[in-house]
Amino acid sequence: MEVADTIVRVVVPNDGIMEEATNAYIVGSGPVLVVDPGSAAGTATVLAALDALGNPPVRDILLTHAHPDHAAGAAALRQATGAPVWLHPDDFPILGRMGFEVPVDHELRDGQTVEIDGRVFDALLTPGHAAGHIVFIERGTGVTLAGDMVHGVGTVGIFPPYGSVQAYLNSLQRMLDHGVTRLLPGHGPVIEDGPALLRRYIAHRLEREAQIAGVLEEGPTVVEEIVIRLYPDVLPQHRHAARATARAHLEKLMDEGRVAREGEGEAARYALLPRA
Asked: Is 17 inside any structural domain?
């Protein structure tokens, strides 16, 4: 499906990493860029989409980040097309840790420009969901290949140690400051009013932080109790993401001197510190 001028969204199946599909994007008319080819199970889908477009040469494979549902298919696509793979170096530690390997040919950098068919995209470093997360913002239009900074139908998980709530909030604001418009997310439908969603995301994170502090006002507790209180309807397959995000909020509160932790692991207890 063409979702913007010569930008085609390819809905790519995942292979057990997560139940929802990933959006791969083919940008340009020939040669083309492929942004986030998805999991290894999705390579055939991306190649079929390229075939439907007349098999334009693939110039580059750009990864917004190294999570397997976005990047694990890059090795097979690279082998099939000969296109080099680009990734920000802050995400290199994830490669291999999650059970897959991707040969990275070039390092993406903050502020780098990517040109295709006379169009220019700015690569913007947006850590938070992943340490080396990059979004690509088209100059002039503000159309943004947003990776996992946003979700077409929900919110985004934060997974320490490579994820950070404070970094994520900063990155959402940085996208706003850069003049984004339509957001093309890594999952779900296109977001037409990108700035409105980013503002809602910021408000949601601050509200969640206040809710966690409210739980701790009742006394020290563990992460699992916070999840039970704040995510009562969470599905079993999303429980890990809920725990990780709660822990990420607690780490932000600890960094700010508002919360103390006693113990380690799942048994760690968190307590609200009195205000100075």
From this structure: yes
Is residue 199 one of the residues assigned to a domain?
no
Compute CA 147 distance to the chain's CA centroid, rounded to the nearest angstrom: 5
**DSSP string covering the chain, please?**
-EEETTEEEEEE--SSS-SS-EEEEEESSSSEEEE---SGGGHHHHHHHHHHTT-PPEEEEE-S---HHHHTTHHHHHHHH---EEE-GGGGGGTTTTS------EE--TT-EEEETTEEEEEEE--SSSTT-EEEEETTT--EEEETSS-SSS-----TTT--HHHHHHHHHHHHHTT--SEEESSSS-BS-HHHHHHHHHHHHHHHHHHHHHHHTT--B-HHHHHHHH-TT--GGGHHHHHHHHHHHHHHHHHTTSEEEESSGGG-EEEEPPP-
State the Cα–Cα distance between residues 149 and 54, nearest whole angstrom.
31
- How many Cβ atoms sit within 10 Å of the Cβ of residue 84? 15
* Domain ranges, residue 233: 207-272
Q: Calculate the alpha carbon distances from 69 to 85, 107, 248 in Å.
A: 16, 20, 21
Are both 136 and 87 inside the same structural domain? yes
Residue 127 falls inside a structural domain? yes
Tell me the mean pLDDT in the region 216-232.
Answer: 94
Contact yes or no for 164/252 (Cβ under 8 A)? yes
Tokens read off for 220: 């020290």
The model's pTM:
0.94
Q: Read off the pLDDT of residues 14-52 as tens digits, 9 standing for 90 and up.
A: 876 667 899 999 999 989 999 999 998 899 999 999 999
Whether 198 is covered by a domain: the verdict is no
Q: How many domains does the chain have?
A: 2
